[in-house]
Amino acid sequence: MTDKPSPTQEPTDDNFPLYHTARIHDDDDDEIPAYAREILSSQTLSALEEFLQEKKQAEENFERLRKQNESGVDDVLEARDNRLDELDAIGEDWRLSQFWYEENTVNTIVEEVADNTPPGGRIACISTPTIFIGLKRKCPSQSLYLFEYDTRFSMYGTDFIHYNYNEPQEFRDKLSLRGTVDYIVVDPPFLSVECLAKTMLTVDLLKKESGCKIMVCTGATMSDIVYRLCKARRTVFEPKHKGNRLKNEFRCHLNYKSEKLHWDENELLLTTETGTVADQLGNDEVLMSFPTATLINRKGPGGIFKAHTRLRKGAAKLRPLDYAERNGYIRGIVKEIIHDPGRGAPLAKVQFRDPYRYKKRSQTFIATEGLHTGQFIYCGKKATLTVGNVLPLSAMPEGTIICNVEEKIGDRGALARSSGDYATIIGHNHEEGKTRIKLPSGAKKAVNSSTRATIGIVAGGGRIDKPMLKAGRAYHKYKVKRNCWPKTRGVAMNPVDHPHGGGNHQHIGHASTVSRESAPGQKVGLIAARRSGLLRGTNKVKNA
């Protein structure tokens, strides 16, 4: 970066624009220099003079306001009709991502907070100075606290707490506030998942264990993350900023049902790129509100298929794709190796620290060969190339043995999941962002290079090599899988029971292919087959 030239440095052909730019915007000069008037146009000079005048007036107003707060003068505050005068005196600082709310927005939020806070309760305003000033006028008897990075608000004394969202748990001087706040108003200073998640760590520390109400004002694109972090749903209320300088769609989110700020009915069913939020959080109430797909048995006159799920330990999936895995890695530890009835491969309970909340979450992975309890599992772009770790395919070299491969980004595993199965990375196409893999069947498939996979072979290989030996074992195996067992062959039946039955010996007696339009009782055998038999003279398995 080029150094700023000193005022005494002579301008040259190389530093002439930088020289004049540095001199014109010198913070120590309150007036436009003579040399600047010679090189600037009349329109530019007029705009610059207006800017300097506004800057000077704002500094004078702020200094007067600071002296009034230090001396305890409240007459001016009581006489004001516009509660935004204090912020006008302080002024927005775009370098701190400050955008003041409009007066109508402040009035609406202040009334909502005041109506839902018990008398004498504590209210915390995180990065919302406009709401803090409005509440000081509306609720003077309430205990108000402003968590703000801008030290200009330190004139409010003990009500001001210097807050840096990069250190969300640092409250050395306000330890008594932890777990005592009744209402929290949050407006994260930056529109990013990292900023929102860190700010929510502060909310978790401040809120009461029971009955704390939370309002989050942020971009509409963050609604699903907000719901996941604090169960706050999007409302129809849209906060407005002064001058409409913020072009992003802004929304208010509440973790409770309000009489004035109603939830947006079109946004109650929130989804993320990796599936429903209810699926990730295990929220049965939200999950039950989604439409359920039913599978109809196409063969015979049977009814609706219903799987046996009573004894199952849970879905075996990779972690939901998040910021931690996209940009670095997250570490988990194998707590337990478990057996899931109806599944050949063993499962591993892996415990992770939630990157968004101060708690731990368990995820059920498909166990790989060699995995043991107490082993660390690393998931993410920068994880090491070790058996059991989860990485994107683009980070793996050719020839890597993988399993539980994602077919689409974020589906959390769809290919090579059975016991003893594995896939092999054949090559990468960096131009198209595709990776070619060889599946357990021998077929070759091209998938997105950003999809993830587990390194290694699925445990439980050789399971089917051991014979059943007795019918009782087969009975229990198929009972938990809801397969039809024992299954009598059609040619062994009578002709009244099956289209293939009857005859002096066991044979079908006619072509086994049937039309797609056949009646349910006749739809057995090869349904709507284009051909039957082996592909003679060619490979049995065609490469994709």
UniProtKB/TrEMBL annotation:
It is found in: Cytoplasm. NCBIfam families: PRK09612.1 (NF007180). Residues 41-75 form a coiled coil. Its main location: cytoplasm. The gene is EFM5. Residues 1-10 have a biased composition (Polar residues). It comes from Paraglomus brasilianum. S-adenosyl-L-methionine-dependent protein-lysine N-methyltransferase that trimethylates elongation factor 1-alpha at 'Lys-79'. One of its GO terms (cellular component) is cytosolic large ribosomal subunit. This is Protein-lysine N-methyltransferase EFM5. The keyword Hydrolase does not apply. GO terms for molecular function: protein-lysine N-methyltransferase activity; RNA binding; structural constituent of ribosome. Belongs to the class I-like SAM-binding methyltransferase superfamily. EFM5 family.
